[in-house]
Amino acid sequence: MNPSSTPGTTRRTVLAGAAALGAAVAVPLAPVAPAAHAAATGAVETAAGLRTRWHTLLTGGPGLDLTDSRIAAAVARIGRAATTAAKGLDPTRTDGLFPDLTSTALSNHVTTSFKRLATVATAWAVPGTPQHADPALRDLLLAGVDWMLTHRYGPAHTRFDNDWDWEIGCALALGDATVLLYDALGDERLDRITTAVRHYTPDPNLWRADRQIATGANRVWICTVVAVNAVLRDDGDDLARVRDALSDVEGAGANSVLAFNDTGTGAEGTGEGFYSDGSFLQHYKHPYNGGYGKELLNNLSRLLHLLAGTQWRVTDPDLDNVRRWVDDGFDPLLVRGDVMASVCGREIARPSKQGHVSAQTVVEAVLRLIPGFPGETGDRFTSLVKQWITEDTYRDFLAVTDLASLVAAREVLASPVPARGPLVAHKQHPRMDKAAHHRPSFALGVSAYSSRIYNYESIQNENLHAWHLSDGMVLLYTDDLGHYSEDYWPTVDPARLPGTTVVAGRQADAAGQRTTSPAHWAGGTALPGTTLGAYGMELRAYGSSLRAFKSWFCLDDVVACVGSGISADAGTVETVVENRKLRDPRAALLVDGTAAPADPGWSARLDRVRWLHVAGTGGYVFPEPVTLRGLREERTATWREINLKYGTDTPVTRPYLTLWQDHGTAPDGAGYFWLQAPAASAERTRRWSAAPPVEAVARSAAVHAVRRRADGLLAANFWAAGTARELSSDGPASVLVRPEGKTVTVSLSDPTQLRSSVVLDLARRGLGVVSADPGVRVAPTGTGVRITADTAGLHGATRTLTLKWS
């Protein structure tokens, strides 16, 4: 590349070559006629061309129609954001470029300073903003960059606090600001900037301070930093290193970002990155699709956009795996614009990440990917994006996204490809101990952990009250799309998260974070093509002797919740039926048809309860009458209570209704059983209480099993060898047996992920095999059939077979 010989660059040349490149990604950043787009076939191989491409990604590019109301609104947002970011900007100060970012002990003050400069620089570069091309603002920005290089960032400054800020956060923001201000920088300042970035992030194969090579999202962030810096320095060799680093690290033993990490091993025995079941792990064993995973997808889509149609384009065949990232790793975890909190890590404790913000990042990334996956995949991504945007009626994507994504999204919405429609599926992620159940009127997520997966992450003084996020937490998503937004995480009682079984009381801030369980049993099985799934976990609580076996049998619109073996040496043990932030503070609670008081502060012991209904949430049926506790309260908290780094001290108050079963002090072998009917009406709940659609078959320390009365479906979680009616197992297993006409479909798995095989005896005579997954064998017995399934190396994945009466 040679900037001095660069011809004039137009939007057409910036997008050149993308249409013909299978691995290329180039967002249509402004409306283009089909013929003009098809004519854009030349490649971009110059520093100026690539720099313009990145500039266009940041600003939407030239030719934006400022008379268009959506475009005008987006431009106005950019201007307002810059006005806010520029407040206090003063390069004559000695303690800090901004009066609220003066710390020399907190590295995020350095990153945030650069982010504010980039925000202001964006407005300066976008036509139509009040700041556009303002020479005084340009000089102020340049002075601000100089101040940061002199006082905070570069070879003369020793890093402090968090490596991420120095190697990634600062460098990303400074790179963007440099691209936006490029023509005004001058050679000397440009050299200072690129030298400063290279001081902290010299190579895409960067070894971290702990001597572990950067992996997962950190790796893609670092590649982005190096790529933008290489474009600014006209360094094709570094761009080649970026391309190669996405695939592997020669001699370093790190896993490819693009390859599934099923066989990868990290510092603690678990590889970081995506797995073939859609799981994403970061920081060794933390589920993180909605945190680091979304950032990996986002930054990879930007990198692919930058390199599309060039000699540095990514040609690794593993790039095709990105399709499955979207289909298995994001789609099942998105619910009408929200990302299931169980896979968002410590980001749930950041006020800036509530309100469907994380899902926006996913949508923007997939928008960038669409042009690089033509044909069926491109159409499927288009239908997904169209569905995701239109079904989120809580947060208007078009009113919050960046200019480039806004234009691309509107083209997608106008395309003839139909929206996918609401997701109806049951999806389990055995590599990260999570399950998601989607029905037309609701979605439900179950969060577990095991010997393989950490319970929660709390570092950098974030996520301080997340003790029970994986102790069987149940996330229920209904048409109240803002339920987990609007200050849910600071105000919910963290000691009574819905679905969990806990020893009552609070622990110390961040107690037990990054802990695996002594128990191996977490996972389940599902019938392909249905919304039928069995899920469970053996709970070994952190910091106490509490043990429990917990199951969730997701049978279409009913979830059967079963617990047994609940024991503890001390403390009061509770299982939380519900803990709901109320959309209507006086939402009706019906107890066996009678309305409970709706006043804040109400609490009561509810004896011999057969059914409950919470308006706007759904119903709960107790086939065996049970004693519950109920509480309405206005809960007040601050974000700083759960996040010292990013939280504020402003109190927020939200109304809650909590329902729980008290197992008493130091219980021995306690249990529970109820049917949850999300989004069901009160009348439907009442009818089901009179004739429960699901019955409990077994509730012991050996097996949990339920049967659906309508069709005889049997669902069982075997904690050990045992029998549930006609079904027996030789050891730990999760099993579904579904009779349908003359066939019986069986799905099974080994949730411990330790067994070489699972052996089931099904006491039903006259059955023959119609089809079976590899490694599944069937032999007749005197009472029925014996099913033997090889499970070694399957990591909890389901195996299925179909039998037929002869």
Give a quick rundown of the structure.
With 806 residues, the chain is α+β, with helices and mostly antiparallel strands. It is globular and about 85 Å long.
Report on the structure:
With 806 residues, the chain is of the alpha+beta class. It is built from 18 helices and 33 strands. Strands 10, 11, 12, 13, 14, 15, 16, 17, 18, 19, 20 and 21 form a twelve-stranded antiparallel sheet that branches. A hairpin with a 3-residue loop joins strand 22 and strand 23 (703-708). Helix 3 (47-59) crosses helix 10. The longest helix is centred in the middle third of the chain and has 19 residues, at 289-307. The radius of gyration is 28 Å and the shape is globular. It starts with 10 loop residues before the first helix and ends with a strand. The model is unreliable at 2-42, 249-253 and 265-269 (pLDDT under 50).
How would you describe this structure in keywords?
disordered N terminus; 12-stranded antiparallel β-sheet; 7-stranded antiparallel β-sheet; single chain; alpha+beta; 806 residues; globular
Write the layout of secondary structure elements.
Blueprint: H1 11-14, H2 34-39, H3 47-59, H4 69-85, H5 108-125, H6 135-151, H7 163-180, H8 182-185, H9 187-200, H10 216-233, H11 236-245, E1 273-274, E2 280-282, E3 286-287, H12 289-307, H13 322-330, E4 334-335, E5 338-339, H14 357-369, H15 376-391, H16 403-413, E6 425-429, E7 434-439, E8 442-447, E9 473-477, H17 488-491, E10 501-503, E11 522-526, E12 532-540, E13 547-555, E14 558-567, E15 572-581, E16 589-591, E17 594-595, E18 603-614, E19 618-637, E20 652-665, E21 670-678, H18 682-690, E22 694-699, E23 703-708, E24 714-718, E25 722-724, E26 727-729, E27 733-740, E28 743-749, E29 757-762, E30 767-772, E31 776-780, E32 785-790, E33 799-805
Antiparallel strand pairs: 1-2, 2-3, 4-5, 6-7, 7-8, 8-9, 10-15, 11-12, 12-13, 13-14, 14-21, 15-20, 16-17, 16-18, 18-19, 19-20, 19-21, 22-23, 23-24, 24-27, 25-26, 26-29, 27-28, 28-33, 29-32, 30-33, 31-32
